[in-house]
Structure formats: C-alpha cells, structure tokens
Write a structure and sequence with these properties.
Number of helices: 2
Helix content: over 70%
Number of domains: 1
Shape: rod-shaped
Radius of gyration: 38 Å
Length: about 170
C-alpha cells in the first residue's frame, strides 16, 4: 500500500466521521428546538390561567362599580339593570372562551413547530448518512483506481478498457 493510498483512505475515514458528527449535531440542535417548543405549551397554559384570573378580577371590579353606582342612584336591581348585568356576564363568558381558543391555537402551533423541528433533525441525520455513503463509495473508487483495480493502458485491448483481447488476430464473442 503506497502512502497515497493510505492518505486517501485516512482522509476518507476522517471525512466519514465528520459527516456523522455533523449529522448528530444538527439532529441534537433540532431536538433541542423541539423541546423548547414543547415547553412553550406549558407557558401558554400558565399564561391562559393568569389572563383569565386577571380578566375575572377586572370584571368583578367593574361589576362592583356598576352595583355601587346603581345603589347610589337609588335604582332597583331589576329591568334594565338586570339585563345589563346579564349581557355583561355573557360577554365575560365569551371573552374567557376567546382567551381559551387563542391559547389552544398557540399550543397547537407550538406542537407543530416541535414536530417540524424533529423532522428537520431526522432529515439532517439522513443527509449525513447519505453523505457518508457517498464518501465511502468515492474513497473506495479512488483506492480501487490507485491499487491496480484497472489494467494499465499497455494491457488494454485494441478498443480500450473492457474490450476483448484478440486471439491470433481475431476477436470472438
């Protein structure tokens, strides 16, 4: 084995290892991004609870102010005042549902982002494996060409590599 063959083989082995390491690294980065997206789901849920609590506090505050102003005005809690309170309660329920819906949409998007990151990581790993296969085949091809896998041009037949050698000046099938 000549030093050139050893060099080609060594470089091919190093390239193979580096391609594998790059693929693993890229997959690890994508998995970390996926985990971060999944953690956002918990944060979104916590924020929803906080937002609903804050909304309820503000709603009760406004509702209390309305009752106080009605009491100061000396109006009865019936008729229009009752309809206003009922409409406000319905609006509050609607706002809570909107908050929940928006949070659910955000959670779904975070989960989809996590899935996309995982797919990207798997693709990066597969691309690295394909590059490794290509490196192995190219290195093997180079080593085969260097090590006498082909005949020197002086031993080739009249038509070149792969052609038959004449026997007594004749070619046979």
């Amino acid at each position: 084995m000549s030093w050139q063959m050893a060099a080609v083989g060594g470089l091919g082995a190093v390239q193979y290892q580096q391609q594998g390491a790059i693929g693993k690294f890229n997959q690890a980065v994508a998995n970390r991004n996926a985990e971060a997206s999944e953690k956002q789901v918990d944060a979104i849920e916590s924020k929803l609870e906080f937002d609903i609590t804050q909304f309820d506090k503000e709603f009760k505050k406004i509702e209390g102010q309305q009752r106080v102003s009605q009491a100061k005005a000396g109006t009865e809690f019936s008729g229009t005042a009752l309809r206003i309170q009922r409409a406000n309660a319905e609006e509050a329920a609607l706002q809570r549902n909107i908050l929940r819906y928006n949070a659910q949409v955000q959670k779904t998007q975070a989960i989809e982002r996590a899935n996309a990151f995982r797919i990207q990581g798997q693709m990066a790993r597969q691309q690295a494996r394909m590059a490794q296969i290509q490196t192995v085949t190219q290195t093997a091809s180079l080593l085969g060409g260097m090590g006498g896998g082909r005949k020197p041009s002086s031993q080739l037949g009249a038509g070149g590599y792969g052609m038959q050698q004449p026997v007594n000046g004749q070619y046979f099938d």
